Amino acid sequence: MNRNIALSIVLSVVTCGLYSIYWFVVLTDEINREKREYAGDLSGIVCFLLTLVTCNLFGIYWAYKIGEKLDVIKAERGIPTGRDSNILYLILELLGFNVIVLALAQNEMNKLKPLYY
Fold this sequence. Notes:
Helix content: 55-70%
Structural class: mainly alpha
Number of strands: 0
Radius of gyration: 13 Å
Strand content: under 5%
């Protein structure tokens, strides 16, 4: 789904992070549906619960894996990739910028599924 990133960030702030939880879950599921091999991966809700239970340790792993998955999907579709999204997402997550990770991942998803009028 093509999602407005600015609106998603504003909603995340206004709802004190509740929208970012929804965004995290839905974005994880959308990325997993993009490639058949990812269909068996953990669902968005399971990833969120693991992130919650592990005090964000799983969230750090999630950020790395999402960057990796997006790079693979983009490469298969012939979209230029620097192959470093996973490192960027990992660093941002370690610094506590998880909403920025969501925004960057959503931007990549928006590029994969452009909105046609």
